[in-house]
Each structure stands twice: as C-alpha cells, then as structure tokens.
C-alpha cells in the first residue's frame, strides 16, 4: 500500500517545510499549497487524503475552505490549524466539517493522532475498486495502437519520442492522443494519467 498523502495549506513557507519534514519521517507524502484556492483547483485529480488547513490564509480563509470541502462532499477530511483556538472558533470549525482544531505550536503526538482520525474518515477501499472497474471499462475501448501510445504517455515520453519509438509521425501521435483522451473521458493530461493508473495501466 502506498504511503498516504497529506495536503498542507499554509501561506508560510517555513510551516510547510517543517510539516513536510515531520510527516515525511512519519511515513506520509506531503503536498503543500500556499492558498485554499490553489488546493481547490487541483482536488479533482488528487488522491483523497487528510488536509492540514491554516485558519488565516490570503484570499479564502480556512473556515471558508472547510465549507467548500463539505459542500462539495470532497474526500479530504481537514484539520484546522490556528494560532489561537477558542470555543466559538472550534464550534464554527466543527460545524464546517473539521475533524478537529489544533492550536499552534502543536504537539507532534496530537498532530499524528489527528491525522489518524482524519484517515479513518476517508472513503472505504471498495470505492477505489469501483473506480478501477470503471477505468478498466474505458481502457477496453482503446485500439491496440492507442493502448501503445497511452503506455508511452504514462511512462512520461513526449510526443516526439513516442513517434520515434512507434515509427509514426508526431501528427499521428497527436491524433491518437486526442482520441485516447476522448474515449477515456479525460479532462486534462494529468486526469488521463490518473484514470490510466486507476485502471492498473503502467502499474
């Protein structure tokens, strides 16, 4: 099983680096964002995981981000981080869907315990199985050549390199790539890679 991913949303570079180091030693992958908007812009293609969310952020603040996560039913259970925690704030945070509220500076044990609680709220593994079956059904619609092109795309090759390896033109690769994205229902290249990996392609 791959290491779980934790999403850190804090506009302080030092805080993000500190959490990356701490959580890395605890076996987590960490993705950092300096604003709520930056995080929300990528959630559709992100693996579900716990979120460490600062209250005070430029633009959308932590409470508003919590409300968006809850309103859109996004699978990212969030822990609110704040420099001051009082009862009214804690109540607002819980009403907005927070797992808990941690006051800075937090204790390592309290942070890891909160992350474990957040992980317990993630979707059940059978949801991933459903995504796998759906992705496999899309993969079955591809021709043999399209599957060849997809495999090289997932491996990270550029169109020119794929054309060279398969003995076809760059234009033909572009046509195959467009058809693959259409058949796989991919909104972007990163989304295409995610769907392919969910189908077990390139794993």
UniProtKB/TrEMBL annotation:
Q: Report domain HTH luxR-type positions.
A: 135-200
Q: Does the keyword Nucleotide-binding apply?
A: no
Q: Name the keywords, alphabetized.
A: DNA-binding, Phosphoprotein, Transcription, Transcription regulation
**Start and end residues of each Response regulatory domain:** 5-119
Q: Supply the CDD domains for this chain.
A: LuxR_C_like
Q: Which residues carry this modification: 4-aspartylphosphate?
A: 54
Q: Which PROSITE patterns match?
A: HTH_LUXR_1, HTH_LUXR_2, RESPONSE_REGULATORY
Superkingdom assignment: Bacteria
Question: What protein am I looking at?
Answer: Response regulator transcription factor
Originating species: Rubellimicrobium aerolatum
Biological classification of the source = Bacteria, Pseudomonadati, Pseudomonadota, Alphaproteobacteria, Rhodobacterales
């Amino acid at each position: 099983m791959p290491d779980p991913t934790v999403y850190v949303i804090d506009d302080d570079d030092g805080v993000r680096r500190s959490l990356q180091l701490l959580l890395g030693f605890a076996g987590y992958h960490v993705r950092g964002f300096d604003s709520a908007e930056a995080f929300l812009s990528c959630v559709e293609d992100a693996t579900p995981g716990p979120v460490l969310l600062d209250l005070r952020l430029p633009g959308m603040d932590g409470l508003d981000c919590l409300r968006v996560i809850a309103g859109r039913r996004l699978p990212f259970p969030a822990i609110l981080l704040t420099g001051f925690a009082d009862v009214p704030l804690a109540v607002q945070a819980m009403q907005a869907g927070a797992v808990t509220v941690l006051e800075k500076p937090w204790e390592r044990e309290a942070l890891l315990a909160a992350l474990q609680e957040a992980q317990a709220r993630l979707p059940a593994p059978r949801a991933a199985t459903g995504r796998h079956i759906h992705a496999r059904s899309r993969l079955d619609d591809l021709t043999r050549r399209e599957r060849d092109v997809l495999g090289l795309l997932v491996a990270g090759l550029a169109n020119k390199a794929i054309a060279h390896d398969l003995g076809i033109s760059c234009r033909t690769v572009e046509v195959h790539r467009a058809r693959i994205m259409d058949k796989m229902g991919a909104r972007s290249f990163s989304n295409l890679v995610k769907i392919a990996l969910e189908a077990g392609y390139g794993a």
